[in-house]
Amino acid sequence: MPLLDIRNLTIELDTPHGRVKALERVSLTINPAEIHGLVGESGSGRSLLARAILGIPGHNWRIQADRMMWDGHNLLEMSPKQRRNLMGSEIAMIFQDPSSSLDPVIVVGDQLIEAMPENKKLHFWQRAKDQKRTAEKWLHKVGIKDTQKVMSSYAWELSEGECQKVMIAIAVANQPRLLIADEPTNSMEAKTQAQIFRLLTKLNQLHNVSILLISHELETLSIWCDQLSVMYCGQIMESGPTSEIINQPFHPYTKALLNNIPDYSGLVQHKSMMKTLPGSAPALQHLPIGCRLGPRCPEAQKKCVNQPKLCHKKNRYFACHFPYHEEPCNDDATTTS
Amino acid sequence: MTTPLLQVNNLSKRFFTGYKRFRRTYTQALEPVSFELNTGETLAIVGEAGSGKSTLARILVGAETRSGGEIYFEGDALETRNLKQRCKLIRMIFQDPNTSLNPRLTIGDLLDEPLKFNTTLNEKERKEQVVDKLRKVGLLPEHAEFYPHMISEGMKQRVAVARALMLNPKIIIADEALTALDLSVRSQILNLLLKLQKEMGLSYIFVSHNLNIIRHFSDKIMVLHNGQMVEKATTENLFNSPQHEYTQRLIQEQALLNPKR
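Output (structure tokens, whole complex):
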């Protein structure tokens, strides 16, 4: 049974320009103990999806879904209190900007202890010491050597990489089953990035944590993830095992993304123009109808004004009327937007 | 032998860090560095944070004063304080387009500003220049009336490129100009820079830590580490046979981040 199963999730935002569908019929399945990558440009609704899964909607959101199952329980029917209990303990999140999402006036160690559960088996006078010890243990586990010093320093005294490690420690201290990492390595150096990713995969292997890794860098995601979902403007374009997607993309958008990574097998001439899609991603107020890639897509035809259904070939899913695949599986006569 | 467009000899920078036992102490941010750049070439500066690559870029553009060394532009020495002379020749594109454009000015005014201070053109001529540059970076003349928040991130970076082009410079310095951008926008801007280089014979100095792009884009690469120049070679040589241990490690790390295809 999948750990998280989302089918046709639609999020509408009430903006001054009217109601906007920021996410349109997004489906996502995360199995236990897998690393799932979510690629998309900025403004494609990746963070909205993460917040919807965690259950921290904004005040102007309307969430609709056919199904949103967490380990066999329907997330949509849960009371806010039940959702709150899941949050932090079973589903944990690492936020985008680590140094600004930690509290600047409280010492890092106290924040970590605050996030950890109390050990009810111990007597109350033993708990404080025990908590401190476990906090140090977690910091050590995420790769901080000088735990004493880090515990007693403020967020602004630490480097970006250290802050991120503390955030990860806070997130994993409750032993969650799903870890949502929203751009965990944004604006970090290659060395720190590799460290953080190595840490996340280690957590995944040793503690069986499923990870939803959100990023815009296809290069990095393609090494560290088992499954990959590609998102564009609030619609899922393609999803499937990473190696297959990299080797043979079915969707024009995935192909265009892959073209943007320079490649040195000798095919591309030095300093030559790179293949890009024309135009830029549309703003939320001016979304095209149907397939949102439509106006920029090289394969687009008249049919693309209807949103294609997500279709299923073995373990790959893609939403396109004209995929790079022998037989499109959509029964086009019945597609509706 | 022709004189190179830009020649830098033993350029160094040290920062004052306070007094210790009544003596002034300094940290050496940049050990003496020399290099040269020809017309139409791209030089990439690679290094990790704190390696002095941003300092070098800022000295070249004049945002920071140098502590020692000379900069020659087509054989003429550039003075330390003569910014007016320098800003016509060397201009800069900043990292984050969202914060480097003034939100209170329309894009037309924004692009107009360097012309206002550095040339004697009248209003009509300046307007023509602005429209011309906007066209060159693939925007429409109507965009002059827009404010920066009204356009997308990729367009903002195009405006930043247009601003750098405004005074017809010979050299453009891009300090991490592509790292904050999305993948598809990044290659669009990269294509734009390549096109401009071909059309106008610009030279670029490109500061980055993404070796992948640099390999595609630059002719020469300089590797900095802790303020020291570790290696300087052409792109082909550097990637095929890295000499220094640090460079080898950098390339290995990058290979770790590359998809296996």
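Chain B touches chain A through 35 residues (CB under 8 Å).
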